Amino acid sequence: MQGDKVSVRIFGDKAFKLFIIFLSFVAVLPLFLVLGYIIKNGIASVNWQFLINLPKPVGEAGGGISNALVGTGILMLLSCVFSVPLGILAGIYLSEHRRGKLSYLTRLCVEVLQGVPSIVIGIVAYLWVVLPMRTFSAFSGGVALSIMMLPVVVRTTEETLKLVPNALREASLALGVPYHRTILKVILPAGMSGIVSGILLSLTRIAGETAPLLFTAFGSSFMNLNIFKPMSALPLLIFNYATSPYPEWHSIAWGASFVLVVFVLVLNLITKLVVRKWKTQF
Amino acid sequence: MGIDYKETTDKSLKKISSSELIFRRVLYISAFILVVLVGAVFFSLLVSSFPSLKKLGIRFLFGKTWDPVKGEFGAFSFLVGTLLTSFLALLISLPFSLSISIFLGEYFSRGFFSSFLKSAVEILAGIPSVIYGFWGLFILVPVVRAFEIKLGIMPYGVGIFTASLVLSIMIIPYSATIGREVIQLVPSELKEAAFSLGATKFEVIRKVVLPYARSGILAGILLSLGRALGETMAVTMVIGNANILPDSIFSPSNTMASVIANEFAEATETLHLSSLIEVGLLLFIVTTIVNIIGRQIVKKVSIEV
């Protein structure tokens, strides 16, 4: 082989590596642009008053987002209540029955559910809850978000429980412990950290969801604790204020975005810490 | 569990066996509820879009005008809008997500750069879509508008191109993560064999790694396509919301998801509402098919290796 051909190939190799490094960093550049703008524009409007005040009408200075914060909290709580018990039980079923018709079908449905666009889930919650109750409500928003949470909870429960060694189960059964107590007192606690991190993971996923809330929780500019009435949420408030024509509202939306991003990132961090600290190791 | 409790007369044992039975039943029912849930989602979408299915039939798919005032509902322009934005976004994001996969899978699989890029991609996936839309609306739209003025076309700023840009940022994490995983699954014997024949790293990647990981990379692309098709908020905020057939990639348009987001809460007439639900049904079917194919490929790849 001639020398210059080899040097061309070596040059091509180096050029390709640089190209890959360059493109990879260009790809994550938008992340820093987005975060940078949110911090730059958001931090100015965030202060204690911003967090505890209610929104004010256009033209009045100093509106806050307390109703949206409370609303997001209530919505997350509601969707946990709806989805966590069912999700964990279905996850246990799947980890106990690896094969079988129902397991296969359920796994398929979990996959389908995970891919359903959030706006479609919003339509379904509207049809199931809003139409019969004749009003937009936090309850229907919770139903929509819980449908979005469900597949993540089921999957992480299944995956974690599959890692629990069979010896633990056999030891428990050999001692004469009945099946259901073996599952609830031995298998489930052994996989607890994985399940908790799955729930946290799904919460980060739904904390910023807007589309399913557009025609379920709908939004409200008042503080509302009744779950059968329309309720505001952080992402809804950001959407409504960002698309409004008023600059004051835009700055509120930047502030709310800042709060939401910080919240999501902190939740992500906590999830990671939970995974690292109580890692299910066998 | 094949113990026959009938022999024993011990009451506590009987109690245990009955609560065990209840527990098993509860587990079974929970799994079953999930199946029922997905079935119910499909059927309630189908039933609620029945008025529009009956009245409009196939015209719904190919009708070009969507005018709630006149009661005309043809979803063709939304289909075009959705397909254009999604595929354009895939096209834009592909070189970047592939680079990240190769970067993490081949060049820097551990170390500072790797963990930096990995967490950056993770955070990118975690940012809510409404925030991407907000950022796109205020930062990206003026940039695109300036670009359009330079090109000498109508400077809308909003439109298919802008929506695709925002979408492409949002879907990078999906294909990049799966791409990395399948690239790391390429057996090192294959790579070492190529290296020992004198191939450079570039040649190994091009001739060995990429062909081997081909189907996995395709699966990643399909899954991010599923995500792009159904993405609502970010697209709604920057696409311009015009119910017209787009004539170029810079023209304002609407996607299936964004038209639902815009009109659903205000739709009062039965036909309008059921047409919007039919759009949702269509979206559900298409994303489900794309996702299932993608996941099947992922499963097959990881079993093979």
From TrEMBL, chain A:
Annotated transmembrane regions: 18-39, 74-96, 108-129, 135-154, 186-207, 252-275
Localization in the cell: Cell membrane
CDD domains: TM_PBP2
SUPFAM superfamilies registered for this protein in UniProt: MetI-like
GO biological process per UniProt: phosphate ion transmembrane transport
Main location per the UniProt record: membrane
Cellular component GO terms, alphabetical: plasma membrane
Membrane topology: Multi-pass membrane protein
GO MF annotation list: phosphate transmembrane transporter activity
Record keywords, A-Z: Cell membrane, Membrane, Phosphate transport, Transmembrane, Transmembrane helix, Transport
Domain ABC transmembrane type-1 intervals: 69-271
NCBIfam families for this protein: 3a0107s02c
Family of the protein in this entry: Belongs to the binding-protein-dependent transport system permease family. CysTW subfamily.
The protein's name: Phosphate transport system permease protein PstA
TrEMBL record, chain B:
Alphabetized Gene3D superfamilies for the sequence: MetI-like (1.10.3720.10)
Domain ABC transmembrane type-1: 79-294
InterPro entries: MetI-like (IPR000515), MetI-like_sf (IPR035906), Phosphate_PstC (IPR011864), Phosphate_Transport_Permease (IPR051124)
Topology in the lipid bilayer: Multi-pass membrane protein
Keywords: Cell membrane, Membrane, Phosphate transport, Transmembrane, Transmembrane helix, Transport
Ranges that cross the membrane: 27-53, 73-103, 123-144, 156-176, 273-293
A GO cellular component entry from the record: plasma membrane
A GO biological-process term: phosphate ion transport
Domain of life: Bacteria
Keyword check for Hydrolase: no
Pfam family of the protein (one): BPD_transp_1
Locations listed in the record: Cell membrane
Keyword Transmembrane helix appears in the UniProt entry: yes
GO MF annotation list: phosphate transmembrane transporter activity
Family annotation (NCBIfam families): phosphate_pstC
Family in the record: Belongs to the binding-protein-dependent transport system permease family. CysTW subfamily.
Record's function text: Part of the binding-protein-dependent transport system for phosphate; probably responsible for the translocation of the substrate across the membrane.
Name of this protein: Phosphate transport system permease protein
UniProt organism field: Aerophobetes bacterium
